[in-house]
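Give me the fold.
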Amino acid sequence: MNLIPQMMDDPNEGSKNKGILVGAPGYHLAGTVTGNIRGSWAGGGTVYVVGGNTLYQITQGSYVGGNPSVGSVTIANSWTLPNASDGKPVQMFGNGNQLLIVANGYAYIDNGSGPVNCQFTNSGYVNTNGTDVQFVSGDNFSTVPNGATIQIDGTPYSVWTVNSPTDLTLTASAGVQAGAFWQANTGANVTAVTGSYIDGYFGVQRPSGYPFSGTCAVAVSAGKTIVTQLTGSNFNSLSLGDGIEINGLGAYVVGISSPGTILVQPSVPVTSGTTFGYGEDTGRQFNISAPEDGEAWDPLDFASKEGYPDYIQSIFADREQLYLFGVESEEVWQDTGNALFPFQRIPGAAAREGSYCRYAPASVGGRLYYVGAAPHGQPVAYRLDGFTPVRVSNAAVEAAFALEQNMAACLAFDYAEDGHQFWVLNFSDTCWVYDATESAKAGYAMWHQRAKWTGSAFAGYEPAMHVYVPEWVGSASGAYASGMHLVCSLGSPNIYEMNLAYFDDNGSTQQWNRILPHLYDEGKRMFFGRMTLEMETGTATGGTQPTISRTYSDDRGHTFGNPVSPIMGGAGVNAAFSQRVVWPSNGSSYDRVLQFSGNNLGNARTCLIDLDLEIEAGTT
């Protein structure tokens, strides 16, 4: 717990021990917003976070870090998201000019003046006579607001007033045109669950359900069942014979009177204000924006997961490939440049290991990692080697996954520091970290846990979201001089800087714990003599000595005895680099499990190097 394994890089130094254990980084408060933070993104030296239901634009301000940290970040701007908060995590993606925000079940676009709903493009054909525009076919004007910008044959015009769903007035003359093509980003709001950015296109995964829905009134006249749209989508996308669900009952279209009125069979109960929905279930669908334009979303620019019929859990873009992680399978798409729809599925790039955690996929060291499960069993951590899932979790980690109550709510992030490539899986109450660098050195999976120390027990690890800001310059005293790792917690309004030079977690001292494998000698009684723990000493920055204790279990790790502090030689705390950490006598047992614990008291980074223990077999 809170110890990072670090293998020896030099093979000449690995004859005695293979590696060391070093303390996890600490974090200091850099600033606070209003409302618990739900997502973060950084680009061009600016950080964006969503706190509560507000998007904050944040600059470095006076914050420079250090021990103790100095200054605070500055909130440059803030905007309220258009829809009510659903409390779920938020994703953000940038294209250099725009920021896509996926939150509250919708997609928003920010051009620099705050987020607005992404809307599908309405289009069709019209006749114009000066400033008057008459609907001919396609989408009518029922969703066009006054003041909107529309294009007629490629020329933009501003709408003065919408007189009816089939007639509107412009602020300037469009001349006299017959059958002119018109379009505007005034359609239904784009719904979204997760998002991506790849090759100039923003992408969103759609929620399950009908793409076209609303409320309607049902009446019967001359033996015909008439359905009239009241709110939501109109019936422009329906054709004769298409199916529609009305108040949970299925029917099909036998007549189309107007974009807002249809005839259906068989009859459904007469009512007013009931719900309807039609179209292909969007749970397997992803949509893309126009190239480099997050405001334009053609409703026909979509594709559906093809390999297996399970719903999409999340989408993820990495190395110019788009990964569709389903609940029971995954498949990979790429940009082929096709004029009708640029993305096509890569043949054979699919697997039956679906995604269990929506927000767990991450790109670590040039490879994609995710937590998979169904249809084969309990959650397993995978790395994609090419397109093939390779297990990177071990039995102990998977046993912990199986017992995790918040497994599906996992938030993950990747980051690189001190030569390590980390994949951090935060389940709010526990946190597991995979070290891709050390795993490659060791030849097997290297995991460790992280947690915050409350003073009496371990609690949930706060960092659950991460951005790296290379432009932010820190203090030259007690911190790295340039580039900052900023982390946030889903249940807190705080923004922290995470740094290996910090020895506390926002004021809380860092507690560590290490349980060793069983000591067993074919059922023989073992006598334990002098035990010496080789560790870094003398580096404490304060006047209080970090604490350390040893305890053990003789019942195969079920219960541990009282902790015992070592005898520590040396002349003091600071600069006592040759200080010894010794337990002179350690009893006997047939089966022993040793446990070491310590607390740095916020004064030093822990570094455990080696353990020497004298053991003799005998009967007395």
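The radius of gyration is 31 Å.
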